[in-house]
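=== Per-residue structure ===
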Amino acid sequence: MRLNERHLMQLAAVLDAGGVSEGAAMLGLTQPAVSRSLSMLEARVGEPLFVKGRRPLQATPLAAQLAAQGRVIIAASRQASDAVQGFVKGSKGLVRLGGVPFFMDAIISRMIGEFQGREPEIIVQQSYMNLPEVVAALEGDQIDLGIVAMGEVSSGPGFEFTEILHGRNVVACRQAHPLLRKRPIEARDMTTYPWVAPLPGSPLMSDLQMILMSIGMSDLNIRYSGGSLMSVVNFLTETDALAVLPFSVVFALRDSSRITVLPYQIPQPNRALGIMRKAGGARNPASDRLANHVTLAFDSLRHAIKRHEGAVVWGHS
């Protein structure tokens, strides 16, 4: 036997409100419409719904069971309405985010934490990806946003790219590195120390090759590779190794007093960090809200990074 869900909802409302008129008002319906629905439900089940002669209305055992199911339907309907309103406003939902590892760990993850402090009902799923993986994931509708470094090459007509920070790299080392006591630092000085290789697929790998060319070297003494940001920081802290890192990443770790900038100018890539989205199609209001939060956060962060950069006394080769 199939019962009309609306009839069960109306039965629950009538019993909870204590009368047909009151239940109808609760649901925004008229009293005659609700009375007809209850009569139809009673005819459908072939049993009375109310104990005769009782005021306020008293449910029969069968009606009490049906009303319990009606309450479940009412609750689900209200939750669905809340979900729709939350989605449209961008205050509820799921945001799938992919981004370059070091930036995600050092900067973006903290911004996500700040964001969820304000928007606790938005769920963020983060994945580590470089540009090719982000493009493929956006095309396959596997992520909503990508945080990537983009160079001179356009992202293509199928994507939108919003710049949030211009790229700048530095050579990073531990706070007490011997080279920090030398002035000026020369190119050959850096070749006497071990280096950390960037993650495979990272644009920092090509940046390291540019540094090699600028100092007239074909190879470096790579002693560590493939680590996460925390692994690289730990390795630098315990050794005299050097690593190429984005300046913003070193800036984000400044309070830890573990690594710092080696004051030596290196070739800079023509690259910017930004938010990539698929152009056109349905938009996720929650992802738009997160993207706006990250953009505004970088508006403030950009000036702080610039001031910190001005405190570095750059050496010359």
Q: What stands out?
A: The domain at 5-89 is CATH 1.10.10.10 (Arc Repressor Mutant, subunit A). The first strand starts at residue 93 and ends at 99. The mean pLDDT is 87. The first helix runs from residue 5 to 17.
